[in-house]
Every structure is written in C-alpha cells, then in structure tokens.
Design a protein that fits this description.
Strand content: 15-25%
Bound molecules: 4'-deoxy-4'-aminopyridoxal-5'-phosphate
CATH architecture of the largest domain: Alpha-Beta Barrel
Helix content: 25-40%
Radius of gyration: 21 Å
Number of domains: 2
Distance between the termini: 38 Å
CATH superfamily of the largest domain: D-amino Acid Aminotransferase, subunit A, domain 2
Structural class: alpha+beta
Number of helices: 10
Length: about 325
C-alpha cells in the first residue's frame, strides 16, 4: 500500500451514495500535494481506480475482473480542451447507453462520474488531455456469468495522447481496406462501446502489415462501416457523406459534432448514406474522425495491394472542417454537452 493510498485513509472519504459501493474518494489538499510529489517522481498520472486516486504504478485491477478475462465492460475516450470536457454530456449518455446495452448498472451517478474526471484532470494539472473512462463488469469467478460479479469496476485515466504523428495531419494518411469483416450488427450492436475490440485489433494488424495505421472495415454485405478506431467520411462535389450506424459504425461523438456543428457552421451539406468502398475510392476527399484522432485526412486507400490516390494532401473541405474544429476547441467556448 502506498503512502498516498495510506494517507487517504487518514482523511474521511466522502460517504458512499446509496447504491454506489465505491465511495468516490475526494482527495484533500494535503493529499493532492502528496500526489503531486509522487507524480514528480515519474509515477504519473494519478489514476482513479475503484474509488481511489493512486499513482500509475498502483493503478491495478483484479485478475478476476471480467473486463480482463472476457472484455466484458464498456469505455469512453474523451478529450479535454482548455480544461473543459469536450461533449461531456454526450459521452455520459453513450456510456450509460452502452451499460444498458450490456445489462450492467453503473454503480455511481453521472454527476459523480463527471466529478471523477474533473478530479483526475485537476490532480494531474492538465488542461489539454485525453480521458479514458472504463467501466468493467467487475471481479467475479472464472466463468462468463456476469451475475457472479457483484460490483462493476471503474477506472479513469487522464493523460496525453498522440494517436497519429503530427505530419499526417498536414499530409494526410494512407489506410487499407481490411479483408476481415466487421462483426454483424445483429451479433453486436456497434452503439455499445465495449471493451471487446479484437475484431478491430485484427483489422488493425492488417493495416500494420500494409504499412498503414488504420483500416477501413466493411460489413458482411460489403458496405463501409468505419475504421478500427475512427469514423469515416467521404466528400463528393462539396457534399459530405458518412455511413449510418446501421451499417455497423459506432455513433462517434466527433462524427456527430461534424454532422451537427461543423457542417452547418461551414454551410457544408451532409448526409448519412450506405456506401460501397468504390464511393470512397472515387471520392474527392476522405477523412476520419475520433476523439483521439480528431479530424484527419485520408489521401490514399489500399485495396488488394493497389493504392488508390484520393487527393494530393488534405483537401479543401476537410481543411475547412478541421480548421473550424480547431477554432472551437481552442476557443473559450469549448462545448461540454
Ligand atoms: N469507431 C470506433 C470503433 C472507435 O473506437 C472510435 C473511437 N472511440 C470511433 C469510431 C470514434 O468515436 P468518437 O468520436 O466518439 O471518439
């Protein structure tokens, strides 16, 4: 047990809420100092794990947690800009919808969850960051039965992320079309943002084998869904298109921001549409979106070993949308809901 964790017991923790069980711990100023001292020793960041704020080296969960044993759990990847949690409300909506989708009850309230995120930001002295919020089924027995896991686990990591090298944002990236199809919507609702990413990871290994960092995933009917960790958009004749969730795409928060905010702001028409890969290969521009990736241009798509050039560098519509995005997230009005 660390000094920090030990110290925390000398201060009364916030009493647990009625159904909570985690008793979300509010660190005192003294503890914040101790944490900062520890963090100075390279044990950063301070992580929230099951009710406690601990240094990275102590941020561990049980090997009996079904999140580890079976990928039974859900998560969110969230951006913090200028100290504000970008689209926090939508992330909370999606997290709670994912929990419902796997019949799991999150043991703390939305307000407490947001407080945990804010505390992680504060304790680590962050203003621009990435938050990984994970809710696992919790520790149980060696069997699939979720009823054997009495209390879901909660982890919140606030840290930095650089998903793609900076030059790719300037020059655009090449992606590959994965041969492996997306798990059918009927088998796993893509709106559930689950810890079970093997389908995506195996498609990603196809990308890596082709010297790329992302892969486009098609559904069993051959329609484009999304990429392994990003949503995808095509631009044709100045209009923006993206596959609907029913194709097998996650309802990305950044995707929604493009549709509901960036396109209207820039007077760009936008439509959800089932699309074959050919529509992407012949598009004027293609770009990807994600909380970690933000908005990044795709300039080449490789299919069956042949590279199709989409555009020479980032195209004008992508540039306009990306610049509008940057203007908003660097402004004093970073939207939280
Ligand atoms: N699709 C998948 C499979 C993802 O993992 C992500 C990133 N979490 C996205 C799309 C983008 O979603 P968001 O904009 O909410 O990060």
């Amino acid at each position: 047990m660390s000094t920090i964790a030990g110290t925390s017991t000398s201060k009364p923790a916030t009493p647990p809420t009625s159904n909570n069980g985690h008793g979300v711990q509010q660190p005192s100023e003294a503890m914040a100092k101790l944490i900062a001292n520890q963090a100075g020793k390279g044990d950063k960041p301070i992580v929230f794990v099951n009710g406690r704020y601990v240094p990275k080296s102590e941020a561990t969960v049980s090997v009996y947690d079904h999140g580890l044993l079976y990928g039974d759990g859900i998560f969110e990847g969230i951006r913090v800009y200028r100290g504000r949690i970008f689209m926090c409300g939508q992330h909370m909506d999606r997290l709670w919808a994912s929990a419902e989708g796997i019949q799991m009850e999150i043991p703390i309230s939305r307000e407490e969850m947001v407080e945990v995120m804010r505390e992680c930001i504060r304790l680590n002295g962050l203003t621009d960051a990435y938050i990984r919020l994970v809710v696992t089924r919790g520790a149980g027995t060696l069997g699939l039965d979720p009823r054997k896991c009495p209390l879901p686990g909660i982890v919140c990591i606030a840290d930095q992320i650089a998903l793609y090298p900076p030059e790719l944002y300037r020059d655009g990236m090449k992606v590959v079309v994965a041969k492996r199809p997306r798990i059918p919507v009927e088998a796993l609702d893509p709106r559930i943002k689950s810890l079970n990413y093997l389908n995506n990871i195996l498609a990603k290994t196809e990308a890596i084998a082709a010297g790329c960092l992302e892969a486009i995933m098609l559904n069993m009917q051959g329609y484009v869904c999304e990429c392994t960790g990003d949503n995808i958009f095509a631009i044709k004749g100045g209009k923006v298109f993206t596959p609907p969730s029913s194709a097998g795409a996650l309802e990305g928060i950044t995707r929604r921001f493009v549709i509901e905010r960036l396109c209207p702001d820039t007077k760009t028409a936008c439509e959800e549409k089932m699309m074959r890969i050919e529509e992407f290969l012949t598009a004027d521009e293609v770009f990807l979106t994600g909380s970690a990736a933000e908005i990044i241009s795709v300039t080449g798509i490789e299919r069956d070993g042949k590279v199709h050039t989409i555009s020479k560098g980032e195209g004008p519509v992508t540039k306009k949308l990306r610049e509008r995005f940057r203007a908003i997230v660097t402004s004093e009005h970073v939207p939280e809901d």
